[in-house]
Amino acid sequence: MDKAQITIFTDGSSQGNPGPGGYGVLILSEGKRKELSGGFRRTTNNRMELMAAIAGLEALPQPAQVRLYSDSQYLVKGMALGWARQWRAKGYRKKKNPDLWDRLLDLSDRHEVEFIYVAGHAGHPENERCDQLANAAAGRRGLPADEGYERSETDLHPPTLF
Fold first, then answer.
1. Which one from 109, 112, 114, 121 is the annotated catalytic residue?
2. Quick check: is 12 catalytic?
3. Count of structural domains, the chain
4. Which of 4, 12, 30, 101 suits a disulfide with 23, CB 3.0-4.6 Å?
5. How many CB atoms lie within 10 A of CB 105?
């Protein structure tokens, strides 16, 4: 059986870095369009860029051939140039966001994903829509915790007892 051909556009944002953050995803397949978004109360822009790609790939019910467009060189180079796999093989020494890189690498093993860079804020309609979704999500009230970020932040800066 041939795999479905899917196009995904993603974007992430944070209002402050760290600060409230959001991601936006646009999935195009067989003339259908699906939008996804979500956010966290305290996170970083890079985490939201990764989370957007993860959310898009996790939304696919079956393994697919995917062209994933992002304006994040951190995401695109990390995946397209194999850096993330190298970081994983070395135990992510001194690398940030291992929880999200692991999820993304696992999803990339399930799907055939081509990561493609698109310039942000350059008038690309799908990228602009993802930016709108991400910023709207970051501005929502009652955002949940980004457990991976808040846990790593606590590890770096443990609370003082006195």
1. 121
2. yes
3. 1
4. 12
5. 15
